[in-house]
């Protein structure tokens, strides 16, 4: 019997996470995604052989429930991609204490607890199958900050720091890397003025799309010599 070694993508029911889940499933990986909100898309994913698990990381119980389910059902993991995220601004939140807690809960607390809990599962396949992977989806603003998404940016900086700590702790059996995008995909509600302004922030001035992050994920999974590093997908914004 072959040992099941799924790769988990959190928040994989839409946008970048969805593109990644479908691409990796097509490539032959066993894929698990987590979602919060039920949606039509999930049926299609299940038909593609992608397991969809409902998980809400906004509180400790939700994180613990998810950990317990995976530990009960699997003996090893090929990887975990921490993609689940909420991009919220101070403007949209009257209570900034709650905003900071919310941002750190999903972007730092959940990945931290899940990584520690899954260390054994991630290391289990090393002798037979080689290194496993953890990928943190951070953000360009983790390094540069953001005057409109202060709590969000700080939490992505926290996640960026987890990358180097876990790279040290889990080597050589698990590689731990980050992907730091800037504008890859607009949101539905983004108007023309916002889109124009956002595109002007980078040198390449394009909305790169979800395949840009799929390419980065595939590179990291196939790499045998990168850990504790970040792939920046930002169109040269740092030079604009
Ligand atoms: N899109 C872009 O241009 C950029 C993206 N990034 C980063 O890349 C990653 C993917 O981006 P994108 O696809 O736009 O992400 P989305 O904003 O579409 O969020 C992805 C998913 O995260 C899930 N999620 C949010 N909060 C929680 C929670 N508390 N518990 C469980 N799941 C949760 C949501 O699930 P549900 O819908 O089921 O509630 C959502 O579908 C994110 O980490 C993002 O910060 C960084 C810079 C730019
Ligand atoms: N969880 C999310 N994080 C981010 C999103 C998003 O849609 N969901 N979008 C962005 C923007 O594209 C920003 O990079 C534009 O400069 C950032 N993070």
TrEMBL record:
Look up the EC number in the record and give it. Answer: 1.5.1.3, 1.5.1.50
Q: Supply the Pfam families for this chain.
A: adh_short_C2
Single GO MF descriptor: dihydrofolate reductase activity
Gene Ontology biological-process entries = one-carbon metabolic process
Q: Does the keyword Kinase apply?
A: no
**What UniProt keywords apply to this chain's record, in alphabetical order?**
NADP, One-carbon metabolism, Oxidoreductase
- Annotated TM spans: none
List the catalysed reactions.
(6S)-5,6,7,8-tetrahydrofolate + NADP(+) = 7,8-dihydrofolate + NADPH + H(+); 7,8-dihydromonapterin + NADPH + H(+) = 5,6,7,8-tetrahydromonapterin + NADP(+)
User: InterPro entries this protein is in?
Assistant: NAD(P)-bd_dom_sf, Sc_DH/Rdtase_CS, SDR_fam
Recorded family membership: Belongs to the short-chain dehydrogenases/reductases (SDR) family. FolM subfamily.
| Function as written in the Swiss-Prot or TrEMBL entry | Catalyzes the reduction of dihydromonapterin to tetrahydromonapterin. Also has lower activity with dihydrofolate.
Q: Indicate what this protein is called per its UniProt record.
A: Dihydromonapterin reductase
Lineage of the organism:
Bacteria, Pseudomonadati, Pseudomonadota, Gammaproteobacteria, Oceanospirillales
């Amino acid at each position: 019997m072959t040992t099941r070694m799924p790769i988990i993508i959190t928040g994989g029911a839409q946008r970048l996470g969805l593109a990644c889940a479908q691409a990796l499933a097509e490539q032959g990986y066993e894929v698990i995604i987590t979602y919060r909100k039920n949606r039509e898309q999930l049926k299609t994913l299940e038909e593609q052989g992608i397991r969809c698990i409902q998980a809400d990381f906004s509180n400790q119980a939700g994180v613990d429930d998810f950990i317990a389910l995976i530990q009960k059902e699997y003996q090893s993991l090929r990887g975990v991609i921490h993609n689940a995220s909420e991009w919220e601004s101070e403007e949209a939140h009257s209570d900034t204490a709650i905003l900071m807690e919310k941002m750190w809960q999903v972007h730092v607390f959940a990945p931290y607890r899940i990584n520690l809990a899954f260390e054994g599962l991630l290391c289990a396949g090393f002798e037979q199958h080689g290194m496993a992977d953890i990928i943190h989806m951070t953000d360009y603003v983790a390094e540069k900050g953001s005057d409109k998404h202060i709590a969000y940016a700080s939490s992505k900086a926290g996640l960026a720091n987890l990358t180097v700590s876990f790279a040290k702790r889990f080597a050589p059996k698990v590689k731990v890397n980050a992907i730091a995008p800037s504008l890859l995909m607009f949101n539905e509600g983004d108007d023309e003025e916002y889109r124009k302004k956002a595109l002007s922030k980078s040198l390449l001035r394009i909305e790169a799309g979800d395949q840009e992050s799929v390419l980065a994920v595939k590179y990291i999974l196939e790499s045998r010599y990168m850990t504790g590093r970040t792939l920046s997908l930002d169109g040269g914004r740092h030079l604009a």
